[in-house]
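Suppose a colleague, Dr. K., hands you the sequence of a protein chain of 149 amino acids and asks what its three-dimensional shape might be. Before reaching for any lab equipment, you can write down a predicted structure in token form. Begin with the sequence itself:
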Amino acid sequence: MNIYVKRNILVGVFVVLGLISTGYLTIKLGKLEIFEGSGYNISARFSTVNGLRVGADVEIGGVRVGRVTEISLDLRSYLPVVRMVIQKGVELSEDTMAGIKTSGLIGDKYIDLSPGGSSTLLSEGGMITDTVSGLDLESLISKFLFGGM
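The predicted structure, expressed as tokens, is then:
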């Protein structure tokens, strides 16, 4: 085999490995899930969802148990509705409380669930009624800087 052919094969192998690595990192860093695990869908209605994004984590006590799948506006109440998928095996009671939290001082927003004590469980398509919207840091800073506190 000619040395140029060997070199071209070697370069081709490195290019293919680079493309596979780039694809893997894109999926991992973008938090995309190709083979989604099974779970059930629930919703929560908040007064505001500033900074919350589709794909954000849903956590209980700092442990990821789901993710946000959709954020939409309820046209009757004009309040945002957050739909999320929860891992199978994680059972939430109907009096579960959902809050929008920030990881770190200026980090990403996520949903923090605080399970209640009711024996009635949320099922597929259930709605969390007890919610707390996240702290709007921008408005607090502007109130502090420009008065109004």
